[in-house]
Amino acid sequence: MKELILQSLRQERQISGEELGRKLNISRTAVWKHINELRSQGYQINSSPRVGYSLVKSTELLLPEEIQLDLNTQIMGKQVEHYNEVSSTQDIAAEMARSGTAEGTIIIAEMQKTGRGRRGRRWVSPPGGGIYFSLILRPNLKPFQAMQIPLIAGVAVTKAIKATVPLQPEIKWPNDIIICHKKVGGILTEMSSEIDVINHIVLGIGLNVNIPGSLLAEQTAGIATSLIHEYGEKVSRVKLIQCFLYEFESIYRKYLASGFKAIREEWMANSHTMGARVRVNDRGREFEGKAFDLDNDGFLWVRRDSGDVSRIVSGDVSFCN
Ligand code: BTN
User: Fold this and answer.
1) Residues with a CB atom less than 6 Å from ligand 1
2) Each residue's pLDDT tens digit, 291-308
3) Furthest-apart CA pair in the chain: how many Å?
4) Contact, 31 vs 23, CB < 8 A?
5) pLDDT tens-digit map of 131-176
């Protein structure tokens, strides 16, 4: 009902409680209750005795009503669960996936107490300026192919950022999102599988959007950045999520139909890694070389100074100066 009230408030400049009630077939008291609930969620709604209600400002929260407004997707984001505070959206999504929640459902939080990153790292998730969400996927793939999902998600994230703000994000293999050599976002993929079949994947995305530089500098000593810090203006978190869902749905379909080779070119075009001199840390093994290819499985190829080539299956890549 709240969505319908919002819809009416968006259509009309001003509408009386009586008219709203008639339109939605509810009492004026019910209208008033819903209006107050919307106000408590951060919507600024004016009311005047003669003319009725008018929507002055939408909420800053990443509510389903906002994400789903004009969302141009068929599966991704068709169900949105919003929380003010969670331990990690990954845990909630995994639990929901285990109990059968549909593919494309996203779990969004305004802040996370124990947000996590790859390799057991923390993902600092303060309220107000970040995007923290997990997306449930149920692809018909073999478990070994799951490592390609964060690669295609990386392409969708860079495209979504470019569609929202005039910045040039790039992907660092496997899936860090970089702007001006600093990390602005990360992707975490967790999976439940049998030996030969994937039950579900939880794709977690964290993006520093409107987090001020001062806060970032304290936490990550100059290695992280945020969109507001790079662009200088506040960025719409809702638009960014909508663009991501749209881009991801389209690339995911293409990938499921034609495999990673169909995405490889796009990944390369959006990547920061190809041709760069890199330091690789692959399960404790460290070496330097030049990244020269990404194969059709999504693995990175690095030519060491000795001339030997290595196929990097997992690990961390950093850039050498
Ligand atoms: C990384 O770069 O190491 C990946 C970071 C992934 C962070 C996101 S935020 C939403 C989701 N919930 C988590 O606890 N982690 C992921």
Assistant:
1) 88-90, 112, 115-118, 121, 123, 132-134, 176, 186-188, 204-206
2) 999 999 999 999 998 899
3) 81
4) no
5) 999 999 999 999 999 999 999 999 999 999 999 999 999 999 988 9
